[in-house]
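call fold(seq) -> tokens
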Amino acid sequence: MIFLSYFARSVFLIFWLIFFLNFFMPLVGHWSLTVTCAGLLLSTLHFSEFVVVQRSPEPIRRSTIIDVMSVLLFGSSYWLPLLEKRDLIESAIDSLPEDSIIDKK
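ret:
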């Protein structure tokens, strides 16, 4: 899973590098328009993903500008490990035995 996450992040970084370089040195043929449209679509999808995750009943944490930029760059490969970590912590807290001595007092 970790390898897949790093691979996805690498692919996203390469794509965004091509996307931004396309504005300064346009690609030949139809590739320029294709990369531009794909980048705009992907940034719209990633931004909507950020809004959905932040409006969830149990947000992961307060969002910062780093979170916004990371979601725009990496999408779900940024949020999924954080969601899994939150769920793991919550399940560990729920599995703790209750202290009955404190409850009796």
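DSSP finds five helices and no strands in the chain.
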